[in-house]
Structure formats: C-alpha cells, structure tokens
Amino acid sequence: MGQNDVLFERAQKTIPGGVNSPVRAFRQVGGTPRFVTRAKGPYFWDAEDKRYIDLIMSWGPMIVGHAHPEVVEAVQRAAETSFSYGAPTEGEIELAERLCELMPSVEQVRMVSSGTEATMSALRLARGHTGRDLIIKFEGCYHGHADSLLVKAGSGLLTFADSTQNAPSSGGVPHDLVKHTLVLPYNDVAALEEVFKNQGDHIAAVILEPIAGNMNLIQPASEFLGAMRSLTAKHGAVLIYDEVMTGFRVALGGAQSLQGITPDLTCLGKVMGGGMPMAAFGGKKEIMSKLAPLGNVYQAGTLSGNPVAVASGLKTLEIISRAGFYECLTAQTEKLMAGLKQAADKAHIPFAVDSVGGMFGFYFASKVPTSFEEVTKTNIDAFKKFFHAMLDEGVYLAPSAYEAGFTSIAHDNEVVAAIITAAEKAFKRM
Ligand SMILES: *Cc1c(COP(=O)(O)O)cnc(C)c1O
C-alpha cells in the first residue's frame, strides 16, 4: 500500500468519504485520491513524492501558479500583523476599488468567504430588492451549495447525484424551497421566453454561469445571453452573473467583458482570493444599497474581508493586470488544447476541445456539446481511462468528466509539451 492509500484509509475514519469536498474523492473515476504535500508553479507533489502537472489549480484560483513568490510575500507580510480583526481595514477598500475598476458593472461590492456565500447572498438580495420569490437557474450550472440552488446542479452534484429528476439534487433540501426555483435548459431561448411570458412578473432573478464550467465547459450562444438581458430588464428581474469561476479566469474583465453584457449583480470568488477563502458579490448601487446596514436585506460574516485573504487577492489581481498576461494564458491554453486534439486524432479517438482564456474543456465526443444533455452523452468510460493513464504519466486532470480544466501563467511551453507527450501515450494505451 502506498502512502496515498494509507492516508486515504486514515482520512475516511474521521472525515466523511475522506475528503472535505466531494469531487476530490475520485468517485467517478475510481482509485485513490492523491494527498498533496506541496506545490510550486504548475506542479504539485503527492504523499509518495510523485510530481504532477496540475490542470485543476485548486479549481481555478491559482492562475498565477502555485506559491507565486510575490503572493507568498504579501500573505506573509499581512499575517505578521494578525490574521483577523472583525473591524474594517484599508486593504478591503483597495480591493473593492480594484474590483469595481476591473468590472464596470460592479458599482459596489460586498466581500464574503466562499462562492456559495456570494450566490446565496446575491439571491437573497435580488429577492429583497424585487419583493419576489421565484428564481431561474439552468440545468448543469453549479452555483455553490445553498438550498435554493441545489436543483439540477452541476459539479459534484452532477458527478454523484441522480440529478435527472425534477427534484432537489441533494437530500436535506425542502421541496417547499425548491418550488421557488425554475430550472431551464442552458442555451434554450424559447424556454426562457415562455417562462417570462407566463410568470415574468413573479421572477426575482435569473442566475447563470455566463460560461458554464461545472458541466465540463459549455459556452452560451449570444442570442441566449441577449434574450436573458432583455427579458430580465423588461420584467424587472435581476440578472445575476455567477462569475465565481469565470471572473478573472477567462479575461481580466470576466465573461461579461467578452460578451458585452452588463449584469445587475455579479458573483466572484476563486481567482479573486488567489487561493485564500475569499469571494464577493456586487453590482448596481441601487440594488447593493438594500444590504444591511443600509437596507433590510441581512448579510454578514466574521471573517469577511479577511486581511490575509485580501492581501493574497490584491497581489493576485496586480499580477494578472500586467501587460500580456491574458494573451499569454490564452495562447498557452489554446496550444495545449490543439495538441490534445491532434494526439487524439492520431489515435483515431473521437475527441473535441474548447477553451476561453485559462479555462478549458475536452470531450470524448465528435463535437463540442452546447447543453447539459449533450454533455451527459459524451463517452464517460473513455474519460475514465484517459484520466488514469494521464495520472500515471504525472498529469492531474479533474477527476470527473463534468468539470472544466484550468491552466496558469506558469504552464509554459515546456509544461504544455510535456502534457501533450503524456496524452499521446495515454491515447495510445486506450
Ligand atoms: C466554485 C463555484 C461556486 C462555489 O464557490 P465555493 O467557493 O466553492 O463555495 C459557485 N459558482 C460557481 C460558478 C463556481 O464555479
């Protein structure tokens, strides 16, 4: 038994399933999760001291590479003056100003500690602002694990749950709550129009992943986005862009900057904390001013705006704002996807790829899917084989066919070439 197996067995005694977040458990692909001991740049090492090229990067946050010296220094400096005060700091103002600058739709922003908190709070705010209960989400989109949002949800829910029923994707979520959540297929303009026609004046909010990354990677059609923006505006519903994954990942201004859409509220997380527990939601001042202490929509957090997390976030935002960062990140990711596609073609394996900025999807299918339904029809068995062959070769992919992948600025030519070589071997073995 290797050290990873030893640790996994020990972990399962005191931690349910041995992990603190379900997808880490390798349930879809089988085998033993790797226990990480350290990471640097594009690599991490496991408990057996095997090195892997990381293509998850903590599920997105580590966009400047693991343990970037400038971020480490900023965090160390912040830590020396204590970790938390429960009182405001100047760093929070700086971070808020920076976020508002980078995303002009965000006029005011409130910091929280996780993406789940961001979406949960944004929904409460949208409901408080409109005085309506109904929300619309899309099949396969994941917005964290708040009760109202665990309906036909993506990510781990998609990997584990029998999420094809018209019911909560999780136990412990009351039907009474879920009845206020309408779920529509992604990219389906007609379904959206129909719902607004029938119930438009009861809809508090539409929430979506503007580029879906929790059912593999699925891009929205521009007509879909356009219809959503005009229907929500016409009916006084709040449009919530959940950019927890895409914010600062697909472009410096997030998916909204690529799509030319101005949402009413935006949720952020992952990259904005640079790997520390940090997230935020923000948007129109008119809506944000309904939050306590100004308004009657309550929201709070002991560790919100945590100074160490703020330091990590500010430094990460500084690095990604430097000239050429996204051009380089995007080019490297495209190079990687083109290489994987070529390797699969050579082995005559049906394979499709897509990427936006530093986020990518690959599919064991003859074309890139556009909906949740199409994703579930890709070849999951082929994915499992590929996953394990790549793991053997020292490349760590997301342990589920329903997750996007992530690169960092540290994934240079040498790293990309190594991944492609590993993939050539892996495809051959299939
Ligand atoms: C990761 C993610 C969340 C949840 O964020 P946590 O920090 O894990 O709570 C919400 N929405 C999207 C789109 C995400 O990718």
TrEMBL record:
Gene Ontology molecular function: any one: pyridoxal phosphate binding
Pathway membership, UniProt: Porphyrin-containing compound metabolism; protoporphyrin-IX biosynthesis; 5-aminolevulinate from L-glutamyl-tRNA(Glu): step 2/2
Gene Ontology terms describing biological process: protoporphyrinogen IX biosynthetic process
Keyword Isomerase listed: yes
Highest taxon above the source species: Bacteria
Positions of modified residues (N6-(pyridoxal phosphate)lysine): 270
Family matches, as Gene3D superfamilies: Aspartate Aminotransferase, domain 1, Type I PLP-dependent aspartate aminotransferase-like (Major domain)
NCBIfam families hit by this protein: hemL, PRK00062.1
Subunit and partners: Homodimer.
Designated name of the protein: Glutamate-1-semialdehyde 2,1-aminomutase
Organism: Polynucleobacter sphagniphilus
Gene: hemL
